[in-house]
Each structure stands twice: as C-alpha cells, then as structure tokens.
Amino acid sequence: MPAVPQATSFDVVGSHPPAPEAPADGDAPADPLAVRYRLDRSGRLAELTVGGAPLGLTASGSGAEADEAAVELVRATADEVELRIAGIRHRFTVFAGADAVWVSTSDGQVALRERPRFPDHGADAAAGSLTAPLPGTVLRVLAAAGEQVAAGQPLVVLEAMKMEHEITAPVDGTLTELPVAVGDQVDGGQVLAVVEDAGA
C-alpha cells in the first residue's frame, strides 16, 4: 500500500535548558514547528521535513552510503524514538503529559503541544455566524454585507466534495458580515457570513 505523506505542527511550550524558540512564561507561543514525513512501502522513513527544512535520508538496505545529514528511523515506540543521524544512533525519550509531550535528548528536554489538524474556526464565532460545513470553494455570493435578508434566503453557495452547498439565512435580519468572495478556498467551520437577528 503506497504511503501517504503526513503533516502536523507543534507549539514549543517549554524547554530545559531554555531554547531560543521556546517562549518565556507569559509570552505568546513562538511560530509553530511543522513536521512532515512519509514512510515507504516497507514502513521505513522515506521523507522527513522539520520546520520546512528537509533532512537527508538513507536508502536503508539499498547499499547507498549515508551522507553527513542522513537520517534513518531505527525504532519507534510510544515512549522512545531512535534515529541514526550521519551513522550515529540517537535515542529520544518521549513522555505524553496532560497538555504537552516532553521529548528528552542528550541536550535537554523540550515540551511540544500538537496543534489541531482541523482548527475549529467557529469556536469563537459571533452569534448569528454561518459556517462552512466542509472545506471547499465559494462558487457564488448572493447577497452583500448590510442588506436585509429573510429566513431561508440563500447567501453563499459553496462547492465541496463535488457537490453544491447552499448557505441560507437562519432568521430575518441584517447581513452584518460577509468575509468571503467568489473563488475563495475555505476550511470546514470557517465563518462565511453573519446574520443579526431582527427580533433580537
């Protein structure tokens, strides 16, 4: 079965000794650390990118010589990862805490918090917000911000999963926000429009 590239990102939420990318107490988190990897058909690490920088990989078992940046996954369990980097084995102990994962190395420890792969854009949305049911593309915008709209009136048409999804006004009111335009790519849960209830 062909391996599919996987991607995730982490916030660096602490380290010992303090690392330059780790925020001080009370500071906003630093830029997220993006990790992308792919395994080959045999389950070996075939691609690894950390923070946007590709790491060289050995062609394990093929007779290819490791270059000075080559990385090979030797072993991985829930609490330990072992890599061979430029021919030298490195062991990383992993501890999953309540709100972060601590990784211990010979240089110290770092605490990472995985970011949600599918952020909930609607979690902090204003009352009356209409959100995208799925990731997709805005096909049509059928109203303008500031207009009075009626319950059931189509406001936005979204194409997702090769189907059209009509976003309609839930109540009579004023279309106070319309932050999308035709052709926009939107995430599932992203706010497409806000309708202020006329009876509120």
UniProtKB/TrEMBL annotation:
Q: Which UniProt keywords apply?
A: Biotin, Ligase
Catalytic activity, EC: 6.4.1.4
Report biased composition (Low complexity) as residue ranges: 22-31
* A GO molecular-function descriptor: methylcrotonoyl-CoA carboxylase activity
Cited CDD domains: biotinyl_domain (cd06850)
Q: Which InterPro entries match?
A: Biotin_BS, Biotin_Carboxyl_Carrier/Decarb, Biotin_lipoyl, MCC_alpha_BT, Single_hybrid_motif
Q: Determine if Ligase is one of this entry's keywords.
A: yes
One Pfam family cited in the UniProt record for this chain: BT_MCC_alpha
Which domain of life, per UniProt?
A: Bacteria
Instruction: List, for all copies, the residue spans of the domain called Lipoyl-binding.
Output: 121-196
Which residue stretches belong to region Disordered?
A: 1-31
Q: Which PROSITE patterns match?
A: BIOTIN (PS00188), BIOTINYL_LIPOYL (PS50968)
Which PANTHER family does the entry link to?
OXALOACETATE DECARBOXYLASE ALPHA CHAIN
Supply the name of the protein.
Methylcrotonyl-CoA carboxylase biotin-containing subunit
Organism, by scientific name, is: Patulibacter medicamentivorans
